[in-house]
Structure formats: C-alpha cells, structure tokens
Specification:
This protein is α+β, with helices and mostly antiparallel strands and 128 residues long. It has helices at residues 29-37, 76-83, 88-102, 116-120; strands at 20-22, 25-27, 46-51, 55-60, 71-75, 108-111.
C-alpha cells in the first residue's frame, strides 16, 4: 500500500521532531497523522505516498466509482501543528468529511486550503 521511510530516517529530523519507529522503518509523526486522516479510505485506492520538505502527497486510484479525486496534499507544517492540537479528533473528523464531499467533484484536495487568490493564480489589488 504505502511505502515506508528508510530505516536511516530513524534519526532526528529537521525541526527537532523525532520519527516514530515501526519495525525497521521509521515514520515521521506528521506522516502518521496524514495516514490517520486517510484511514477511512480503502487501502487499495491509495496508490502512493510522496513527501518532500513542505508537503505530503497521496495519489489516489481511479477505482472509486463517481470519484474525480486523484490527489490529496497536506502541508507538513499543518500536520505537525495538528499533532498536539487539543481539537485534533474533531479536525480529523472534519477533514475526512471534507475529503468525502470533495471526491466526486474535485481532482485535488489540499490541507490547508489555499486562499482564493492563490487558487485562481491572481494577485489581489493593493489596498489603499
């Protein structure tokens, strides 16, 4: 299903967070949160998991009837903030509902959502 991080990733990561070790592979805490959010989805529809400095990205299979959703993207910083958030469970539940609602009509789901100006690629006029 989802590729695990290499065992060398068990060392401290940038920013001071410590990886969670699962078997021989280490999984960063923010990846665990992302996986928890997506745990309601059938395993076979998550094709791959990619992460870089700023985002954690999941590619979604086209096997779900009626779904246009092909990509789920999380901000790494937002996932890190969610780890210790006292409202974590409520927010995760909300995100799951949002993904389900967006899946039939959108090809990409982002957390957090981008401001409308960034989504449209437009610059807002400077306020006077």
């Amino acid at each position: 299903m989802i590729r695990e991080a290499s065992s060398s990733a068990a060392e401290r990561i940038e920013g001071g967070s410590v990886d969670v070790v699962i078997g021989m592979a280490a999984v960063k805490p923010e990846i665990e949160v992302a996986r928890e959010i997506l745990s309601f989805l059938p395993e076979e529809i998550i094709l791959s998991e990619e992460s870089d400095r700023g985002v954690v990205r999941y590619h979604v299979s086209d096997s779900m009837d009626g779904w246009k959703l092909r990509e789920i993207v999380f901000s790494r910083k937002s996932l890190l903030r969610l780890i210790d958030d006292p409202n974590r469970d409520v927010k995760i539940s909300y995100m799951r509902r949002e993904i389900e609602r967006a899946a039939p009509s959108r090809t990409q789901w982002l957390f957090p959502r981008l401001p409308m100006s960034e989504m449209l690629g437009a610059q807002l006029p400077a306020s006077r």
